[in-house]
Amino acid sequence: FTVVVEKATPTSKVLKVVLKNETLLVLKPSADKKTYVVLVNSTAVSVTAHQPHLVQYRPTNFSVVYLYVTEHVQATPVLWLYVKNLGLSVVYDGVNVYVQTKLPLYHGRLSGLCGTSNGEYSKDLVGPEDCLYEDPLDFVNSYGFGVTFPSPKGPYVCPPGVSPHYGNVRSMISRAIMMEETLSEDEQVSEEDVVGPLDVDEESLESRHIILERANRICVSTEKIPICKPGLEPLKTEKMMKGFICLRKKSPQAKAIVKQIQMNQSPILFADGTPEPNYEQEVDVVTTCM
Where in this chain does the record put each VWFD domain (predicted)? Predict the structure, then answer.
């Protein structure tokens, strides 16, 4: 089987599952927060908490996909996909995806799009610049899209003369090409113009509160920060110091705020105005997208 997660919007994902190279299941976020519509080889199936489904994906009796939904008081309903004979279990809520293999029969290759490898060090954790990472999150970030990923937290080894790169390589190349073309069109650009404040391309941007994780705390920016609209990637960024409100990660208030931000709602924490930040950090603020 193959599991692929695709970004639908900045706060939602589409999940595609291919079984035995014959059956394609497409899982999309719930539109009404009650029903999930699953496409089984282009045929739509509606799944709710009161209407589970069984899908026969091959002629054999054991080749069955179980689809069902569980409801939760303060969270979005969760769609479960279970293929018993393959040992595949998938949990999906439109934003987060959890994949578990229950049978120890699979030998895979890390591609840069997978999870944490259960924290195990592996010779397969080699990034696109041939740097070997020990921390799985550093490895995943090395293949990341955008230019806001942090520097490696754990040990790493790179070939001579090579340093880890962060963010999407295509974005970096596009940014360099565009800057070179701009300078070639106007050879009289002064040094002051090059290093001065960047103009903000408002048509390609939208603003949202961003979330950082610090140890056992969740930190929410006290002001909305520009991000690229769906389908666009950062072209130019500017480092700026921003204020954050940090809360315990497991506190009900923190969980509620994260959910509200994912749903593009204003956090209840800011209902009475902007609170004073209790943490500050320099972040990359997007000014131009492409």
Answer: 1-152
